[in-house]
Amino acid sequence: MEERRKLHDLPILFLTNFDREVEINFSTSMLILVLQIEKQSNCQKEIISANSKKIFYEMNDTIPC
């Protein structure tokens, strides 16, 4: 199953390194997920979560690629 979201749709987003990992804190479920991130040449980030669901976060112009 795939979802498409903008980065600002997430409750809390802490970017440690765009090429390496993203830590997302969903305040509604009180869970912290550390997801591996793969940098794509088209500036789209593909994130594979622990349950293998693919979530694509589209980058806007204000975020460097």
Quick overview of this protein structure:
Helices cover 0% and strands 55% of the residues. The protein is mostly beta strands and 65 residues long. Strands 1-6-5-4-3-2 form a six-stranded mixed beta sheet, with no helix packed on it.
Can you walk through the features of this model?
This protein has one domain. A hairpin with a 5-residue loop joins strand 5 (44-48) and strand 6. The protein has no helices and 6 strands. By secondary structure, the protein is mainly beta. The chain has a 6-stranded mixed sheet, with no helix packed on it.
Characteristic key phrases:
about 60 residues, mainly beta, about 0% helix, disordered C terminus
Q: Please compute the radius of gyration using only Cα atoms.
A: 11 Å
Tell me the strand percentage band. over 45%
Tally of distinct domains: 1
Average pLDDT number: 45
Number of strands: 6
**Helix/strand class:** mainly beta
| Form type | globular
**End-to-end distance:** 25 Å
Give the helices and strands as they follow along the chain: EEEEEE
Helix run count: 0
Report the uncertain regions.
Answer: 11-44, 46-65
- Major sheet strand order: 1-6-5-4-3-2
Task: Give a quick account of the main beta sheet: strands, pairing sense, barrel closure.
Answer: 6 strands, mixed
What is the helical fraction, as a range of percent? under 10%
Topology of helices and strands:
Elements: E1 2-6, E2 12-17, E3 21-26, E4 31-39, E5 44-48, E6 54-58
Parallel strand pairs: 1-6
Antiparallel strand pairs: 2-3, 3-4, 4-5, 5-6
